[in-house]
Amino acid sequence: MNKNIAVIEGDGIGPEVTRQSIRVLNAIADSFGHEFKYTYCLMGADAIDKTGSPLPDETIEVCLNSDAILFGAIGHPKYDNDPTAKVRPEQGLLKLRKSLQLFANIRPVTTYTALHHLSPLKTKNIEDVDFVIYRELTGGIYFGKKEISADGNSASDDCVYSAEEIERITHLAFQAAQKRRKKLTLVDKANVLETSRLWRKVVKEIASQYSDVELDFLFVDNAAMQIILNPKQFDVVLTENMFGDIISDEASVISGSLGLLPSASIGSGSALFEPIHGSYPQAAGKDIANPLGSILSAAMLLDHFGLTEEAGLVREAVNWTLTNGFVTKDIDPVNFYFTSTLGELISDYV
Amino acid sequence: MNKNIAVIEGDGIGPEVTRQSIRVLNAIADSFGHEFKYTYCLMGADAIDKTGSPLPDETIEVCLNSDAILFGAIGHPKYDNDPTAKVRPEQGLLKLRKSLQLFANIRPVTTYTALHHLSPLKTKNIEDVDFVIYRELTGGIYFGKKEISADGNSASDDCVYSAEEIERITHLAFQAAQKRRKKLTLVDKANVLETSRLWRKVVKEIASQYSDVELDFLFVDNAAMQIILNPKQFDVVLTENMFGDIISDEASVISGSLGLLPSASIGSGSALFEPIHGSYPQAAGKDIANPLGSILSAAMLLDHFGLTEEAGLVREAVNWTLTNGFVTKDIDPVNFYFTSTLGELISDYV
Ligand SMILES: CC(C)[C@H](C(=O)O)[C@@H](O)C(=O)O
Ligand SMILES: CC(C)[C@H](C(=O)O)[C@@H](O)C(=O)O
Predict the structure, then answer these.
(1) Which chain B residues are Cβ-neighbours of A141 within 8 angstroms?
(2) So, what pathway does this thing act in (chains A, B) (predicted)?
(3) What is the rounded CA–CA span in Å between residue A41 and residue A272?
(4) Which of A15, A71, A119, B23 has a CA positioned 20 to 30 A from the CA of residue B101?
(5) Measured between beta carbons, which residues in chain B are less than 8 angstroms from residue A243?
């Protein structure tokens, strides 16, 4: 198989973790006879420094013409204290999502026995947790009209959804549920929001096409409790953009380490794969960052190409490192291995 | 002291827990020589059944003319499956908040050693957790313009905030921080929302009047993680309506029991006090519900009247029941006491 992969190393630890993923992808290509071609491009603080723009047109161009995008991390502390600045790294990411119509953000939430001691939750609450969040990513209050009055004393953000925007991600979520434990939970606030009532209506209508999947509904405030009280109950969780931002980050604490959680953002064309962790600038360049989030994102990329066996092998290799204590400093501050050593171990394994 | 208290027993277990609070308030009145006069009124499913409206005008009238409102719980399962129904219990609560301008919802998050084993979080993560959430309650996306297109294929909810709406709750939150550990955290999404940027601007401006309070900012997605990862870091958390709905329910899981968490909703006039738990209809009429959430809400009501000593005594009595194992079925399903027994023990104590 021949594939073009756009690579956005991004900011902070982005470059060093992404490099390990590419090493693993190359090892997979070698073992299975595929050819992956990489084109590097810029986004985020790095892009602002080099071009003045958080998302140069060239990056959009390269991404549109690629089969998938591997992305590292975004953000630099120099922008953190002023979210009102005219040019900011996140704008690049939001614009890329919109330009590529990456309408579904997919976040698996799984736990690893070897990391149970790191979770803030009691072990009995997290054993066998295995769900996936489908977050709508290109609509809602993120992209609605934003206004600030002339005197600066009043502001507004409009949350808008069309039935079409809801339909396309809902189909993906139902299809995912069919391949899993056949349960879909829609998280909304239909007792207050008109957009949530539209979500409920559309999702209920589509449900009839997936009669093997059990559908239920949870108000977002209740969902925020249930995710901690009883995360085992979930299989596929579907929700709109803003609620998804909040509950997917909340759910990420369950496993005990943000460092190894992957994500995929899927659209009609090219899809983007990135670890959920941030750019973690304090660790940049020290070879101590956890590359597993990026490597497991690369596994999702392989799945996306239909290379299920290859993806499975990468996950097997990751499990093998964890159960044998080959872990980075965030997991074991005393007996730890370097970012690059993990990349090497995993590429050797696959 | 003479005070008029409006009492809305509401739905499900609302009446039986509220009765225990009134018993405790009467005991306090006896011991300290106060006079509390109660006027009963209707809201919620109960009000719909009896009058057709979730909030009869008479209730608004009584509440406006009272010094405080003691409220039980709202909601009945017959409305749960259809959030789009024309008349629903929650509408009563939302309308009451707006009519009385109850703009600040205050939710203390504390833990009790006797309940640590019930928390989904590891004990070391919850020891000494003690913070309070100030949620804006009458603005934002809850009360903005809601639209559904003629063909039903597009919906919108507008989120609007004025500087004034932000100012009044911000002052309350800073004043609370001054009486506590002098730290205020604003939770927003200023990297995406115009309204959040207005919140940040207004809160920063007001901060100069409270120079003894340390102010920091957290994006709501990060806050959703931090509340579970490290809840000890918070003192006063300030946020807008929708984010407050989500994170205050999330935070409520920390203590291990929703049954004993109180809340206050403060406005320019009369204030409302209610347990955070719902109407829990399965338990209604069985004398098994936990009355502590309501009784601790009554303690907040006493604080609101400036009766600090009285409020302290109620809290002392509650602690005494917990440490001596006088607990309801939700806390100990084997050796449990009845709702009314707890009310009796606590009124005898005070
Ligand atoms: C950086 C920010 C704009 C972004 C979002 O809110 O979508 C991030 O939190 C995420 O979840 O990818
Ligand atoms: C019942 C509902 C409308 C309400 C809200 O969202 O405000 C409830 O969840 C609450 O937090 O009091």
Answers:
(1) 141, 159, 192-193
(2) Amino-acid biosynthesis; L-leucine biosynthesis; L-leucine from 3-methyl-2-oxobutanoate: step 3/4
(3) 13
(4) B23
(5) 246
Judge whether B249 is annotated as a binding position. yes
Instruction: Burial-class residue B50 by CB neighbours within 10 Å (0-12, 13-18, 19+).
Output: exposed
- Greatest CA span in chain B, whole angstroms? 63
User: Tens digits of per-residue pLDDT, A114-149?
Assistant: 999 999 999 999 999 999 999 999 999 999 999 999
Task: Report which DSSP code applies to B84.
Answer: T
- Domains in chain B (CATH in brackets) are 1-112+258-350 (3.40.718.10), 130-253 (3.40.718.10)
Task: For ligand 1, say whether the CB of A245 is within 6 Å of any of its atoms.
Answer: yes
Is A212 an active-site residue? no
- Residue with the two structure tokens 């809400």: B297
Residue/partner pairs of B200-203 with CB below 8 Å, 24 or more apart: B200/A83, B200/A84, B201/A84, B201/A152, B202/B163, B202/B166, B202/B167, B202/B170, B203/B166, B203/B170, B203/B238
Check CB contact of B84 with chain A, cutoff 8 Å: yes
pLDDT band for B83, please (50, 70, 90 cuts): confident
- How many CB pairs lie under 8 A apart between chains A and B? 176
Question: For residue range B177-193, what is the model confidence (pLDDT) as tens digits?
Answer: 999 999 999 999 999 99
Q: Dump pLDDT digits (tens) for B293-341.
A: 999 999 999 999 999 999 999 999 999 999 999 999 999 999 999 999 9
In the set A49, A221, A232, A348, the catalytic residue is A221
Q: What is the rounded CA–CA span in Å between residue A64 and residue B66?
A: 63
Which pair of structure tokens corresponds to residue B53? 């409206």
Phi, psi of B105 (to 5 degrees): -100, 125
Alpha-helix residue ranges (DSSP H) falling in chain A: 14-32, 45-51, 57-64, 77-80, 89-99, 123-126, 163-179, 194-207, 220-229, 241-251, 292-304, 308-323, 339-349
Task: Fill in the DSSP letter of residue B142.
Answer: G
Instruction: Tell me if B303 CB under 6 Å of ligand 2.
Output: no
Nearest alpha carbon to residue A322 among A110, A17, A71: A110
Question: Using an 8 Å Cβ cutoff, are B264 and B105 in contact?
Answer: yes
Q: Token pair of B334, please?
A: 């084997």
Amino acid at B138: T
